[in-house]
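Most newcomers find our protein records easier to grasp once they have seen one. A learned vocabulary of local backbone shapes supplies the integers on the structure line. An example says more than a description, so a record of this kind follows:
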Amino acid sequence: MHDLTETMRKHNQQDFLMQPTREWITQNQFINISISKIQRHFRIGYNRAAIILKMLEAEAIIKNSHE
């Protein structure tokens, strides 16, 4: 079984959309960000958007979207 933290760490190193997503969120000062909002803006799939969202939560760029 893959460790989620390790998968997220590897994804962050490999995904060129992490920095543009950070900038997009901070520039627009979103109150609510969702997987679907990331999907629509960057035109990516659900899984990729979900991993990016989890990484942003882990970095404290956004609050936990499940609260």
In short: The CA atoms of residues 12 and 49 lie 12 Å apart. The two ends are 27 Å apart (CA to CA). The chain has a mean pLDDT of 81. The chain has four helices and no strands.
